């Protein structure tokens, strides 16, 4: 197999008809084949499908169907703008919408399995549209990632089964065409759809690059490369030109939104560089991760996680929090899919900054309440500064109500709410 190009386009890069045209234009800049193009759900459609899941989980099927209708109209409008004769494509999209409607009837599924069944259709619909549009001028094939990425059955956070995945990808990728595949999704041994975790399309890109021994992976973003903070949140951000794998892994671990936490490890293992480039200015240099020992330039990095909750637990008999308590708590978190972003324990109290999932957290609290006295502080945020200076810390925490602070020589973190 010749070395393929592996590109990943996120939701912002395919948010409307003009964005789809731009993706096709970028692909035409790279006539080398084969090419694998990983695509996320369009625009904010993952959020929209998550709303469907929310209504399904509370048995409010009328609102769920109303939201599905909105989703259908969103995609229908894009198709109408892109194609002169879209009937065949509209039929394919209708079939996928019908599958989502069918999912509403599966009331016996767990929340996580139902989530994966419903939400993964966002990627299927997006790739059908994009493959059809690219195929108007470039030889293209739509591939079903559920047949390519094999996983376990841990819904919403599935683990890739690498050997089976590598065999499937190598055998199915078309050497002479652009292969359009879905990010974020896979399938279990029994064939049930799974997802790799929120924002998991970057990780899908790394899986394909690894299995195909690609020369590189390119992720196309709406920023000029990797910045040292989200420019929508932090002022005077700077572009990082080069970054070592290990530093990228650290930043992803702490929640840098531009990289999915699992993305870097498979690339590092095979020394495959990751390019982060702008789909607005595709010929600009961007950022390259890998192949260097130090970042260029060396700057502090700022990461803010919103929609967090601070969970504090004490034993009911005021005994010390010890290993068997923590083991039981973490096992529950694993079973329920709780994401812990910061943890600290004292003699009598354990504190966890967690993603405030509106469906998972209440059920976890219900299970913990028999053994622990609980305090949940909602609507908090988590600020992480890596490679910080004192002035960075003072500037970014001014006016914040700090609830929990944790630091190492390289990293300082603050859980806070705003006055």
**Unreliable stretches:** none
Strand order of the largest sheet: 3-4-2-1-7-11-12-10
Could you give me the name of the CATH homologous superfamily of the largest domain? Answer: Acetylglutamate kinase-like
Taken as a percent bin, the fraction of beta residues is: 15-25%
**Strand count, sense and closure of the main sheet?**
8 strands, mixed
Distance between the termini: 58 Å
CATH class of the largest domain: Alpha Beta
Total beta strand runs? 18
Mean pLDDT score, rounded?
A: 94
Q: Structural class of the helix and strand makeup?
A: alpha/beta
* Percent helix range: 25-40%
Any idea what the shape is? globular
- So, CATH architecture of the largest domain? 3-Layer(aba) Sandwich
Nearest-angstrom radius of gyration?
Answer: 22 Å
Description:
With 419 residues, the chain is of the alpha/beta class. It folds into 2 domains: 5-215, Acetylglutamate kinase-like (Carbamate kinase, 3-Layer(aba) Sandwich); 301-418, VC0802-like. Helices cover 37% and strands 24% of the residues. The chain contains 13 helices and 18 strands. The chain has an 8-stranded mixed beta sheet with strand order 3-4-2-1-7-11-12-10, with helices on both faces. It has a 6-stranded antiparallel beta sheet with strand order 14-15-13-16-18-17. A hairpin with an 8-residue loop joins strand 11 and strand 12. Helix 7 crosses helix 8 and helix 9 (245-253) packs antiparallel against helix 10 (264-270). The termini are far apart. The model has no long low-confidence stretch (mean pLDDT 94).
């Amino acid at each position: 197999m010749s070395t393929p190009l592996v590109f990943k386009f996120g939701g912002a890069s395919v948010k409307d008809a003009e964005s789809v045209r731009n993706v096709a234009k970028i692909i035409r800049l790279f006539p080398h084949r084969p090419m694998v193009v990983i695509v996320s759900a369009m625009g904010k459609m993952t959020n929209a499908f998550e709303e469907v899941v929310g209504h399904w989980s509370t048995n409010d099927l009328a609102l769920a169907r109303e939201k599905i209708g909105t989703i259908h109209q969103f995609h229908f409008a894009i198709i109408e703008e892109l194609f002169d004769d879209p009937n065949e494509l509209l039929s394919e999209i209708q079939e996928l919408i019908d599958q989502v409607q069918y999912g509403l009837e599966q009331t016996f599924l767990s929340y996580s399995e139902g989530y994966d069944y419903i939400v993964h259709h966002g990627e299927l619909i997006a790739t059908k549209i994009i493959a059809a549009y690219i195929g108007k001028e470039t030889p293209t094939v739509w591939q079903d990632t559920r047949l390519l990425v094999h996983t376990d059955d841990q819904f919403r956070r599935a683990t890739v089964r690498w050997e089976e995945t590598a065999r499937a990808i190598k055998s199915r990728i078309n050497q002479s065409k652009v292969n359009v595949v879905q990010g974020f999704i896979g399938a279990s041994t029994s064939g049930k759809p799974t997802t790799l975790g929120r924002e998991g399309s970057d990780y899908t890109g790394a899986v394909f690059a690894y299995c195909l021994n690609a020369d590189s992976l390119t992720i196309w973003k709406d920023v000029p490369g990797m910045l040292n903070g989200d420019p929508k949140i932090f002022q005077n951000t700077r572009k990082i030109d080069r970054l070592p794998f290990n530093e990228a892994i650290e930043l992803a671990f702490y929640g840098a939104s531009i990289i999915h936490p699992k993305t870097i490890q498979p690339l590092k293992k095979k020394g495959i560089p990751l390019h982060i480039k702008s789909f607005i200015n595709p010929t600009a240099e961007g950022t390259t991760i890998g192949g260097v020992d130090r970042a260029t330039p060396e700057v502090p990095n700022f990461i803010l996680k919103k929609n967090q909750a601070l969970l504090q637990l004490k034993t009911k008999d005021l005994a010390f929090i010890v290993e068997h308590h923590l083991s039981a708590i973490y096992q529950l978190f694993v079973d329920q899919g709780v994401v812990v972003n910061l943890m600290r324990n004292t003699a009598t109290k354990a504190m966890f900054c967690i993603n405030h999932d509106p469906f998972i957290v209440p059920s976890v609290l219900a299970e913990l309440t028999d053994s622990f006295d609980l305090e949940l502080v909602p609507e908090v945020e988590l600020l992480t500064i890596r490679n910080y200076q004192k002035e960075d810390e003072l500037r970014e925490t001014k006016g914040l109500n700090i609830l929990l602070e944790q630091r190492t020589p390289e990293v300082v973190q603050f859980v806070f709410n705003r006055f």
